[in-house]
TrEMBL record:
Region described as Disordered: 161-183
Protein name per Swiss-Prot or TrEMBL: GMC family oxidoreductase
Similarity comment: family membership: Belongs to the GMC oxidoreductase family.
Domain Glucose-methanol-choline oxidoreductase N-terminal: 221-330
Assigned keywords, A-Z: FAD, Flavoprotein, Oxidoreductase
Transmembrane segments: none
Length: 571
């Protein structure tokens, strides 16, 4: 029998960056908020003196248990999807703080071009530049409209950085100065300046100095220990929801967090969300939490899955191109990189931080002329020093024997004599890339898994090789003696890690017929339901998505407060 609890003003599903920001902003305005997190409690003390590569980086201690819930994948509709039984291409976080605990901290703003990508592309190149099947879509908001929310998120996190010379205009500088430049970063800077490019230090949620944010949260500076990605920060120097926004919400006395609470349905009646149904995974009890406003702030896959299982919104149909839930799934093109080997130079690549690096955006967005290339958009190119942990890193030049004396000698020679310059390419949406419920496979509760249908297109293959050649050119200018770079991008491989930058499925826009949420991330079909996260992106940019997720979370919080006061669709 389902136990029904007293009604809350707001129930938040998933307490990561988006959920934490929503809770913080709403409780400060006097609303009572219940946060439901299916994972366990997390706090900074959990990571004291725990630099354990095996436990966190290789055995995925902070990630979702795939034996209980996973995704299924197929590259084309005619192929049967199969479950992802071990982690590969991306990592799905679990627990309080979500992926905001184990991220690297690279915090970018999308380019102004991203938000009006269809209009701007047609304006400059004509309609024929957009290939058949690419469902390119303006976002229903401009960079200038979103800029104040970017600024707010950066000040909450204490982002350390310097102005991007090719980025959108800023209303204020970063709250803390950029991080230190290592010798390899200085080499990248000199080389790219020699090539008449525009380098700048990567915007970092790893604090360059001690900082107190506008909410009064004080945090210490980064120690450059190199245990960021896949790890919690023992110093609290890496901004994450557990050390920034969640404490602010809890301090109001109006935020109740319930961990081990797996939301399985959003309840609704007469076109309104009435609450949620969740299972207490410690007892197996089913519980109903009524609420005036429901905010879905879990990871991309779960946002879509919950809407589909709850029969909210029209599911996307790739055959007809109709429907919106599951539409415009996009990923990231990470394969455009190059490795340079140096005979007479050595580097300490084991020190570092998750967002320590230098970037150029000369090949990102529409910052260069695409007239003579067979793709749109682009990607950032960077040299980052995130810390090469010893178990996972042992590259040798292509053509080296894979075992034996030659392999051992070459491994030792280049252990501290190589650098990687990498590109992070954008991902454009296509009609046949989408998410839906798998008809065969189910989770531990008997609910259907989410199914991905996706593969790299010619757009991605051309972009990856273009960016890899740019990376190789920079390494040549840096003086590398031997350079290996991508020559051809094959099919998408879900077994090899690339990035956890999944986007789309509940996309935003100005037209309810082609989008699921408005630019406050309010559902067109259910005005007291807000869906916040990278699921709102109608394509993925050549950057990490978290800065844009954070900005939209602050805008969504503003929209929720407007809805609370006036009701209806927020404008």
């Amino acid at each position: 029998m389902v136990r029904k609890l007293p009604k809350a003003d707001v129930v938040v599903i998933g307490v990561g960056w988006a959920g934490g920001i929503i809770a913080s902003e709403l409780t400060k305005k006097g609303l009572n908020v219940v946060g439901l997190e299916r994972g366990k409690e997390r706090k900074t003390e959990d990571y004291f003196m725990v630099h354990d590569e095996l436990r966190y980086a290789l055995r995925y201690d902070l990630m979702q248990d795939l034996s209980k819930e996973t995704i299924t994948f197929r590259s084309k509709e005619r192929i049967r999807a199969l479950p992802m039984r071990q982690y590969g291409s991306f990592l799905i976080g679990d627990g309080l703080g979500g992926a905001g605990v184990h991220w690297n901290g690279q915090t970018f703003r999308f380019l102004p071009y991203d938000f009006e990508i269809r209009s701007k592309t047609i304006e400059r190149y004509g309609k024929n530049k957009i290939p058949a099947g690419m469902t390119l879509h303006d976002w229903g908001i401009t960079y200038d409209e979103l800029e104040p929310y970017y600024d707010k998120f950066e000040k909450t996190c204490g982002i350390s950085g310097e102005e991007n010379p090719l980025g959108g205009k800023r209303s204020d500088k970063y709250p803390t100065p950029p991080m230190k430049k290592s010798p390899s970063i200085k080499m990248f800077e000199e080389a790219t300046k020699n090539m008449k490019l525009h380098p700048y230090m990567m915007p970092s949620a790893n604090l360059s100095q001690s900082y107190t944010n506008p909410d009064g949260i004080a945090r210490a500076a980064c120690q450059y220990c190199a245990y960021c990605e896949r790890f919690g920060c023992e110093y609290g120097a890496k901004a994450d929801p557990v050390v920034t926004v969640i404490p602010v919400a809890k301090k109001t006395g109006k935020f109740e967090i319930r961990t081990h609470s797996n939301v399985r349905r959003i309840l609704h009646k007469g076109g309104k969300a009435t609450g949620v149904l969740y299972t207490d995974t410690t007892t197996g009890e089913e519980i109903e939490q009524p609420a005036d406003i429901v905010v879905l702030t879990s990871y991309v896959f779960n946002n879509i899955r919950l809407l589909l299982m709850s029969n909210i919104g029209k599911p996307y149909n790739p055959a007809s191109g109709t429907g919106v839930i599951g539409k415009n799934y996009a990923y990231q093109v990470i394969k455009g990189n190059a490795i340079g080997y140096f005979n007479d130079k050595q580097f300490n690549t084991y020190a570092g931080a998750g967002a320590l690096g230098m970037v150029i955006d000369d090949y990102n967005g529409d910052n260069f002329d695409h007239k003579d290339v067979n793709f749109i958009h682009g990607g950032m190119v960077s040299l980052s020093q995130t810390g090469l942990r010893p178990i996972q890193n042992n590259p040798v030049p292509q053509g080296t024997a894979a075992w034996g004396k030659e392999f051992k000698e070459t491994s030792l020679k280049y252990a501290n004599r190589y650098l990687s310059v990498g590109a992070q390419g954008s991902s454009m949406p296509f009609k046949h890339h989408y998410l839906d419920l798998d008809p065969t496979y189910k989770d531990a509760f008997g609910d259907p898994l989410i199914r991905i249908t996706f593969d790299f297109e010619e757009q991605d293959k051309n972009l990856a090789v273009f960016l890899a050649n740019k990376c190789a050119g920079i390494l040549k200018e840096m003086g590398a003696d031997h350079i290996d770079s991508l020559k051809e991008l094959g099919p998408y491989d879900i077994t090899t890690y690339q990035s956890t930058h999944n986007t789309g499925g509940v996309i935003m826009g100005a037209d309810p017929g082609t989008s699921a949420v408005n630019n406050y991330l309010q559902m067109w079909d259910m005005d007291n339901l807000f869906v916040v996260g990278a699921s709102a992106f109608s394509h993925n940019s050549g950057y990490n998505p978290t800065g844009t997720v954070g900005a939209f979370a602050y805008r969504a919080a503003e929209g929720i407060l407007k809805y609370r006061d006036k009701g209806g669709q927020v404008v």
